[in-house]
Design brief:
Elements: H1 2-21, H2 32-42, E1 45-50, E2 62-67, E3 75-80, E4 97-101, E5 111-112, H3 113-121
Antiparallel strand pairs: 1-2, 2-3, 3-4, 4-5
Length: about 120
């Protein structure tokens, strides 16, 4: 129950930050929420979990992912192009990003978009 309360609280904070920062968004920038919502509109599932790259463990931001509807292990993240090992207290609301497939915690499945497409064509 506490985790759900924190998610709702951060959701409201995210919503307010979104409204404030939207006028400063560049046309080629996005974030994990807008990417996941666009993919979810095409079908599949919206997955919400806590971000793993927080600078402080007591501040947890939600991270939004997209999972295909067939559960074919295609889990897509939209993450910043900059190094993932940079830990931030407050993430950037809009950023130039890249798509990461599957779960980066399992390094054997960590693939970039081009590698994933090349592997599926063979």
């Amino acid at each position: 129950m506490w985790s759900f309360f924190k998610l709702v609280m951060w959701g409201w904070l995210w919503f307010v930050a979104w409204i404030i920062t939207l006028p400063f968004k560049k046309s080629n920038q996005d974030n994990c929420l807008t990417y996941a919502l666009k993919k979810w509109d095409e079908g599949g599932y919206l997955v919400i979990r806590w971000c793993r790259s927080n600078k402080h463990s007591w501040i947890r931001w939600p991270h939004f992912l997209w999972l295909d509807q067939r559960f074919d292990r295609v889990l897509e993240h939209y993450v910043p192009k900059e190094a993932e090992d940079i830990e931030r207290t407050i993430p950037k609301p809009w950023f130039d990003g890249r798509i990461v497939y599957n779960d980066p915690e399992d390094h054997s499945q960590f693939q970039e978009e081009d590698e994933f497409k090349q592997g599926s064509e063979n």
